[in-house]
Design goal:
The chain has about 230 residues and is α/β, with parallel strands linked by helices. The chain contains 10 helices and 8 strands. The protein is globular and about 45 Å long.
Length: about 230
């Protein structure tokens, strides 16, 4: 039997526009969800104060801001994030950006996650920007570069998780968004996976938003996903 606690590996995406809504979900999921993603929607309205409040309450925080700027700016911004006490921070999988981010988090427990390819993107989207590679080829190339640059992990669809683990020797954490329970809505994601398939492929953390947020009973929805994860861990 696996000794992995699913509660440590489930991240709920707080993709809501107000602190009031975010606080309601945090309270409703008390004792069920311990790890929360704060992205550009909530961070724009709530800022550092809300994140600091989560950290003070002992919650783990995934700051999903996808930094993409010149190296000096990224390095300094990552230092600020590291000082906030968050656990994860995303940056774009650009070599200069990833290298600067790895330097900026030095001495902290912050883990830098490189965004390989948004789960809303498919082959046709790559063609639109002149990339003549498959989604798997793009993801793998960027994952290998993330290792070289000193990143701790990547954001990747569960469909590429196994390949990333194999080709990088398990050196990267794989954090998988676009996770939907069996029979759930796609909600704009093109490369979806279920909790079981993501875990089976080697994903270390699962990011779930709408299936919990839009459920009639978010707490029950989260518990059901945790049970799916528990069965997958065996």
């Amino acid at each position: 039997m696996s000794n992995i606690d699913p509660k440590e590996r489930l991240i709920f995406a707080l993709d809501v526009p107000t602190v009031k809504e975010a606080d309601r979900f945090v309270a409703e999921l008390e004792g069920v969800v311990e790890f929360f993603k704060v992205g550009i929607i909530l961070h724009t309205s709530a800022g550092e104060g809300f994140v600091a409040g989560l950290v003070k309450k002992g919650r783990r925080v995934f700051l999903d801001l996808k930094f993409f700027d010149i190296a000096d700016t990224v390095r300094d911004a990552v230092k600020q994030a590291a000082g906030m006490g968050v656990d994860f921070l995303t940056v774009h999988a650009d070599r200069q950006v990833m290298t600067a981010a790895a330097e900026g988090k030095t001495g902290s427990r912050l883990k830098i996650l490189a965004v390989t390819l948004l789960t809303s993107m498919g082959a046709s989207d790559l063609e639109d920007v002149g990339i003549k590679m498959t989604t798997e080829e793009v993801v793998l190339r960027r994952a290998k570069m993330a290792v070289e640059c000193g990143c701790d992990g990547v954001i990747s669809s569960g469909k590429e998780a196994a390949l990333i683990k194999k080709e990088t020797g398990g050196k990267l954490l794989v954090v998988t968004p676009g996770v939907r329970p069996s029979g759930g809505s796609t909600d704009g994601h093109k490369r979806l996976v279920t909790p079981a398939s993501a875990i089976g492929a080697g994903a270390d953390y699962l990011v779930v938003g709408r299936p919990i947020k839009n459920a009639p009973d978010p707490r029950s929805a989260a518990l059901e996903i945790l049970e799916e994860m528990r069965k997958a861990y065996g």
